[in-house]
Amino acid sequence: MQADFAVIGGGVVGLSIAHGLLKQGKTVVCIDGTDSDFRASRGNFGLVWIQSKGIGHAPYAAWTQKAVRRYRGFVDQLKADTGIEVSYQQTGGYEYFVDDAALQARAASFEQLKQDLGGDYPYEVFDRDRIKHEEPAVGPLVCGATFYPEDGHINPLQLLHALAHACVDLGFVHLTGRKVVGATQGDAGFSLTLDNQQTVRAERVVVAAGLGAKVLGPMFGFRGLVMPQRGQVLVTEKLPKLVNRPSLTVRQVNEGAIQIGDSKEDVGYDDSETVPTTASIAARAIKVIPALKSARLVRTWAALRVMSPDGLPIYQKSTQCPGAALVTCHSGISLAAAHSELLSGWLLDQPTAPDLAYFSEDRF
Ligand SMILES: Cc1cc2nc3c(=O)[nH]c(=O)nc-3n(C[C@H](O)[C@H](O)[C@H](O)COP(=O)(O)OP(=O)(O)OC[C@H]3O[C@@H](n4cnc5c(N)ncnc54)[C@H](O)[C@@H]3O)c2cc1C
Questions:
Q1: pLDDT at res. 84
Q2: Whose CA is nearest to atom 13 of ligand 1?
């Protein structure tokens, strides 16, 4: 099998990239591991989010804005191409605060970021009266919230489904349940060995394997600097409308269930749920929305985030193996539109490609 590109990893990052390359007329084969792999794309919180990303790193905030500002057009096109509804709602979103000093500190960091972005950061700070007016269900402990009007949420599994569907319609070869275990490079490009001894040949390779990049990256001259961070998420029964807009704490999906998120735990490659953490996530949510106290939980899960040492994405082309690129990030849902619509230009060295030098692996 010979393709222009082999994309290793078929999570939201790999599929978004494959989608963009296929739209540019390239042939793409995607090799995607097994269900026993860690798969953040199937365990995330579904926010399409700008707020708080890039504090102290304005280029990351700007890149996230660029991605989210393309989202409506991106998902509308996916719907037109596949008929799949991904339930994207760009209502604006909050971070709630129960401590006024913490709210003021966050507002100060947003003000600095706004200056760093030349004034383009349209956040607001809602005091207690304003947030109570917007979200009548908030409890007495909430002293205010930051609000960012371009934030929103999506059904992340439907996004994955729509991307896979769109890619197949564009002629994509999807090898699921297969892992890349070896690679060599010759005059004709890369030769990838799969775990069933099958060989896939491609002129170029994109490593988009999430946590799998730790092992795969060095095969292509990258440093494999990804590490896991566990997040646990809770889901309630379907409820009547309780919250109007999503936040980092709670979001009500269009079918009515409330998702409550999420922890940040450094526990290595352990993606099990734990009662103490789910209890503390629930307690935090009840502080914000007291009515959740009587809601029944129907499901909890844990998944591992794909983190770089500074939490920012890595976009790196290999100098050791020209033609190989590494893409990894911890906000693959929020960045999906940019990964589909802009990264192909970067991978193909087109003059209009975004400048991603800030996100090089060399920064570490
Ligand atoms: C709890 C939690 C909450 C989150 N919330 C949000 C959110 O609200 N908004 C947001 O934007 N992001 C969120 N994220 C992050 C987001 O889910 C990830 O950034 C994104 O899913 C990463 O996608 P990926 O494709 O890089 O990795 P993955 O989804 O992990 O996919 C990697 C794929 O590579 C495959 N693979 C690995 N090794 C090999 C190999 N050797 N050969 C072939 N295939 C291989 C695996 O099988 C897997 O399918 C959250 C993550 C978590 C865990």
A1: 98
A2: 331
Same domain for 195 and 46: yes
Q: What is the CATH number of the domain that holds 252?
A: 3.30.9.10
Here the CATH number for the domain that contains residue 62 is: 3.50.50.60
Residue 224: pLDDT above 90? no
Distance 197 CA to ligand 1 centre (A): 25
DSSP string, 219-256: GGT-----EEEEEEEEEEEE-SS--SS-BSSEEE-TTS
Of the residues 32, 42, 195, which should be mutated to test ligand 1's pocket, given the most ligand atoms within 8 Å of the CB? 32
Task: Name the one residue in this structure whose structure tokens are 């961070």.
Answer: 229
The residue-averaged pLDDT of 164-183 equals 97
- Helix 71-82 with 156-169: angle, nearest 10 deg: 60
3-state SS assignment for residue 257: strand
Q: What integer pLDDT is reported at residue 262 of this predicted model?
A: 86
> Which residue range is the domain that position 122 belongs to?
93-149
pLDDT at 45 over 90: yes
Question: Do 269 and 217 belong together in one domain?
Answer: no
271-319 pLDDT, tens digit each: 999 999 999 999 999 999 999 999 999 999 999 999 999 999 999 999 9
Q: Is the pLDDT of residue 1 over 90?
A: no
Q: Residue 150 corresponds to which amino acid?
A: E
The number of the ligand 1 atom at minimal distance from the alpha carbon of 15 is 25
Query: Atom 52 of ligand 1 has which residue's CA nearest to it?
Result: 44
Distance from the alpha carbon of residue 39 to the mean position of ligand 1, in angstroms: 5
Overall domain count for the chain: 3
Q: 210 CB contacts (<8 Å, ≥6 apart)?
A: 9, 11, 13, 37, 38, 39, 40, 41, 226, 306, 328
User: How much is the pLDDT for 180?
Assistant: 98
Give residue 217's pLDDT: 97
H or E element that contains 140: none
Q: Report which ligand 1 atom has the smallest distance to the Cα of 181.
A: 41
**Same domain, yes or no, for 170 and 184?**
yes
Ligand 1 centre to CA of 124 (Å) is 31
pLDDT at 352 over 80: yes
Protein residues with CB under 6 Å of any ligand 1 atom: 8-14, 31-33, 37-41, 43-47, 49, 179-180, 208-210, 212, 216, 231, 233, 262, 303-306, 328-334
